[in-house]
Design goal:
globular, Enoyl-CoA_hydra/iso, 9 strands, binds ligand LRBWVUCK, three-stranded mixed sheet, alpha/beta, single chain
Length: 282
C-alpha cells in the first residue's frame, strides 16, 4: 500500500509563497531558503549528536512538519564540523529502564521510516564522523556528500548489537548485497575515501562550504522535473521496506531489548565506554 506519494494539493502550495519552518527546540534547527525552497536541518545535540529519545523525537517531528510544508528539498547536517552523529546515545543502553528502552528503539524505527520515506529529495551533508546510528541517518537520505578525513559505517556488531533487518536492507540497496553482508557482520568503519569507493557516499568535499555546494547541486537536478513523478517513483521504491519494518516492529523491539539486557552486552558496554574515555585522555 502506498503511504504518501505526492499530494496534488501540494503542487498549488508550491506555487505560492514558501513557508519557513523552524523548530522551537534547540536539539534540531531548521532553516528554509525562501528562494530555493530548500530546508537545512541541523542536528544540535552537543557534544556528538548522540541519538537520545528526545533528539530522535525532534528529528521525526521536524521531518513531519517539513512534509506538511511546501519545501522542495532538504539537507541534513550537524552543528559540529567533527561529528555528524555518534549513533544511538550509549547511555540509553546502560542499565536502562525497560519502558524507555522500548521507546528508544521504537523512535529509532520511526526516525528511519520518516527520513527514508520523505516525498521531497534529501541529502546528508556528512561533516564529521558517522558511526552506527549516524550512518543510519545518512543512509536514509537519497544522496550523501561527505567531508574528507572522517569515518562512517555500521559498526554495531563491534559493540555487540545486531543490525536490524530494515537497516541491513538500506545498506544492501546502497552498497550491494555482498558488500552489505560482509560489512554489516564485520562492523566495518570506512574512511571518507573508502566510503566513496564502495558507494556508501556519493561525493567527497574538502570542507563544509564545498559540501553544501555539492548538496545543493543534487537538489537542483530536480528543479525542472515533475514533483509528482519524482516523489512517486522514490516512494514506490521505498514504501515496501517501510511497510515491512512496521509489520515486524514489535518483534524487532523485543529483539533489541533482549540484546541490550544481556549481561555480556552490559559488561561490554562498560568496557566500550571506558575505551572511549581512555582514547580521549591519550
Ligand atoms: C543496532 C543497529 C541500529 C543502529 C542504531 C544504533 C546503534 C548505535 O548507534 S550504538 C552507538 C555507536 N556509536 C559509537 O560507537 C560511537 C562512539 N563514539 C566515538 O567513536 C567517538 O566519540 C566519535 C568518533 C563519534 C567522536 O570522537 P571525538 O570527537 O574524539 O569525541 P569523544 O570520543 O571525546 O566524545 C565526546 C563525548 O561524547 C561521548 N560519546 C561519544 N559517542 C557517544 C554515544 N554514541 N553515546 C553517548 N555518548 C557518546 C564520549 O564518551 C565523550 O563523553 P565525555 O568523556 O563525557 O566527554
Amino acid at each position: 500500500m502506498l503511504r504518501k506519494i505526492f499530494n496534488p494539493a501540494r503542487l498549488s502550495r508550491f506555487q505560492r509563497t514558501m513557508v519557513t519552518v523552524s523548530s522551537s527546540d534547540a536539539l534540531v534547527s531548521t532553516e528554509v531558503d525562501d528562494k530555493t525552497g530548500y530546508a537545512t536541518v541541523t542536528l544540535n545535540r552537543a557534544p556528538v549528536n548522540s541519538l537520545s529519545l528526545e533528539l530522535m523525537t525532534e528529528i521525526v517531528k521536524t521531518v513531519d512538519e517539513l512534509e506538511r510544508s511546501n519545501i522542495r528539498g532538504m539537507v541534513l547536517t550537524s552543528f559540529s564540523n567533527k561529528v555528524f552523529c555518534a549513533g544511538l546515545d550509549i547511555m540509553e543502553m546502560v542499565n536502562p529502564d525497560l519502558d524507555r528502552l522500548r521507546a528508544v528503539w521504537t523512535r529509532l524505527q520511526d526516525t528511519w521510516a520518516s527520513l527514508y520515506g520523505t516525498s521531497f529529495p534529501t541529502v546528508a551533508l556528512i561533516n564529521g564522523h558517522a558511526p552506527a546510528g549516524g550512518c543510519l541517518l545518512a543512509l536514509c537520505c537519497e544522496y550523501r556528500v561527505m567531508c574528507n578525513n572522517f569515518n562512517i559505517g555500521l559498526n554495531e556488531t563491534q559493540l555487540g548489537l545486531a543490525v536490524p533487518p530494515w537497516l541491513q536492507g538500506t545498506m544492501r540497496q546502497t552498497i550491494g548485497t555482498r558488500e552489505a553482508e560482509i560489512h554489516c557482520i564485520k562492523g566495518t568503519m570506512f574512511n571518507s575515501q573508502d566510503a566513496l569507493k564502495i558507494g556508501l557516499v556519493d561525493e567527497l568535499a574538502a570542507e563544509n562550504g564545498e559540501a553544501m555546494q555539492r548538496a545543493l547541486h543534487y537538489l537542483n537536478t530536480f528543479k525542472q522535473m515533475s514533483p509528482y513523478a519524482r516523489s512517486a517513483t522514490k516512494l514506490l521504491m521505498r514504501n515496501k521496506d517501510i511497510e515491512d519494518m512496521k509489520r515486524g516492529r514489535k518483534e524487532d523491539v523485543e529483539r533489541f531489548v533482549e540484546n541490550v539486557m544481556n549481561s555480556d552486552f552490559q559488561n561490554g558496554l562498560t568496557v566500550y565506554l571506558q575505551s572511549l574515555k581512555n582514547r580521549k585522555n591519550k
